[in-house]
Specification:
globular, alpha+beta, 17 helices, 4-stranded mixed β-sheet
């Protein structure tokens, strides 16, 4: 396929010289601070339509804004200066910030924001993974400075979902196709701190500071994003001064992070847990429908060995489906300790006796299970092989097989698995959105839970969580759901994923935000 140049800009020879660049120039020139940053990603930016899901989220957050922003200190206004919530929790009234324009000069007023919501709602079914879309009754603009959103019932994560960069970021109406975005857009025009100037598929993208940006101007004027798929090549590029920053949980392996933890030249950072790596057990499967067997597998799993042996401790061992640092999830649950004696006792009590072949048997059948993993993930294959070896010692024959990502996801969603790797959605979608999705066949959770006697109770409690207006009652409901799922032993937590950053020590202001996919370039400087 021909490489496609999105746009030709004035001074393109200057841009191209940056790309071919003779290094990143980490030293200051003539006493002046650097205003250009070289970032790297394993693939290109792809389709940056903010109302769809193909593009790289870090790039979308550079170009677009939402009504509100989710921060560690709570929600703050973005395109909305302020908002009010009705007493019944169903109506949200937003006052739109005055004087904001899209980078093409179009006013970003209530009318433009309404056009965005209309475009999003035209493709409503695509977004129903967010519960808000199932509850949304109307969006209106009574005047140019006001947006009113009405729900069918209260929904406490409303602001959390509105703060998601997709699908609720705003694009210029002039970039829509006849008022629609579901079939593509004509340009990536937002109100964010940067504008996209140029990109070549699978090679690079160039972002320039938006000089009409309504907020605080970023100190970094130009951001060059290079595409380097290979992990070791990225590390070498950083070492050679060709790039400044590597950022993301899948962009760096644990060995590389360990190497640079005590470096003076480079800074390595790890975030708090962002999501949980785990294995889902299908409770409708003939063997796994027995909770005693599921609990035996919990005790047979050495999470600490996986954390330290595979991740060098960079992903802490996980005791629960969600880390205690996730809102509402600091629930005092008793971990399933690694205890092979207890695992053997439970399997014996469930009627699975050791056979002459070294594999347990019951009623003439062997204790054989299959573990499905994403063949694109070297880590999942490594963990699978480790568990296969460890389970065998207990008389459990674990076959493992990997499938390419789409097939893996399709089989997981359809419930065609005994055991399958999965990862929680992560912040800011946990716990509310990932729990909400358990009530429908969105991912493998729904199928895996169909054998639970208390499935209906769990689903009802999740529904009540989402519409709860009392904080105390909400916590009680979360405690109920998390306790039931833990006691039902549906999930084998492995490790808590962490976000990673490795960068030249000359770069300042690098930090991790609420959204694990966001890279806050606007706060960075040299």
């Amino acid at each position: 396929m021909k490489k496609k140049l999105l746009s030709v800009i004035a001074g393109s020879m200057v841009v191209l010289s940056l790309v071919a660049g003779c290094g990143n120039g980490t030293s200051e020139k003539n006493g002046e601070k650097r205003d250009r940053l070289v970032y790297v990603n394993y693939r290109d930016i792809r389709d940056l339509n903010p109302h769809l899901y193909a593009g790289e989220m870090y790039a979308q957050s550079m170009l677009y804004d939402t009504l509100v922003t989710n921060t560690k200190d709570g929600f703050v206004g973005s395109l909305a200066e302020s908002w009010k919530i009705s007493e019944d929790g169903r109506t949200y009234t937003f006052k739109i910030r005055k004087g904001v324009t899209f980078s093409d000069g179009t006013a970003c007023d209530a009318n433009a924001i309404l056009q965005n919501f209309n475009a999003i709602l035209e493709n409503r079914k695509r977004h129903t993974w967010l519960e808000m879309m199932n509850l949304l009754e109307s969006v209106t603009a009574p005047d140019n400075e006001t947006i009113v959103i009405t729900l069918s019932k209260p929904y406490y994560p409303m602001l959390t979902e509105l703060a998601c960069i997709r699908p609720f970021a705003m694009i210029s109406p002039k970039a829509m196709k006849n008022g629609s975005t579901k079939d593509g857009v004509t340009g990536y025009i937002g109100t964010g701190p940067y504008v996209l100037k140029e990109f070549v598929v699978d090679e690079y993208a160039v972002f320039e500071r938006n000089e009409t940006y309504w907020g605080k101007k970023p100190k970094i004027k130009t951001i060059l994003v290079k595409v380097i798929p290979d992990n070791q090549t990225r590390i070498m590029a950083l070492e050679n001064g060709e790039i400044d920053l590597i950022f993301g949980k899948n962009m760096l392996d644990a060995e590389a992070m360990k190497k640079y933890m005590k470096s003076d030249k480079f800074t390595a950072q790890l975030s708090d847990p962002t999501s949980t790596r785990h294995i889902v057990l299908n409770t409708t499967q003939e063997i796994l429908k027995d909770k005693t067997v599921r609990k035996a597998l919990q005790h047979a799993t050495n999470r600490k060995a996986i954390s330290e042996g595979i991740f060098y401790g960079m992903e802490p061992a996980a005791d629960t489906l969600y880390a205690p640092t996730v809102p509402y999830c600091d629930v005092k649950l008793k971990p399933y300790a690694y205890d092979t004696a207890e695992a053997r006792r439970l399997l014996d009590s469930a009627g699975w006796k050791m056979g002459s072949s070294g594999i347990r048997e019951k009623d003439g059948k062997k204790l054989q299970l299959d573990l499905l993993y994403n063949s694109d993930s070297v880590t999942e294959k490594t963990i699978s092989e480790y568990l296969q070896s460890e389970f065998r010692k207990l008389g459990v024959e674990l076959t493992i097989h990997g499938e390419e990502e789409q097939s893996y996801r399709d089989n997981m969603k359809a419930g065609k698995f005994d055991m399958v790797f999965n990862i929680c959605w992560g912040m800011p979608y946990d716990p509310q959105s990932s729990l909400a999705a358990m009530r429908a066949p969105v991912y493998g959770d729904y199928a895996a839970q169909q054998g639970l006697n208390d499935k209906a109770e769990i689903d009802e409690a999740i529904t009540n969580i989402l519409s709860s207006t009392d904080e105390g009652e909400r916590q009680k409901l979360y405690t109920f759901v998390l306790t039931r799922l833990h006691d039902d032993a549906v999930y084998i937590p492995l490790t808590y994923e962490t976000n990673k950053a490795l960068y030249t020590s000359a770069l300042k202001g690098v930090h991790f935000g609420i959204d694990q996919y966001d890279v806050d370039f606007a706060s960075m400087h040299f």
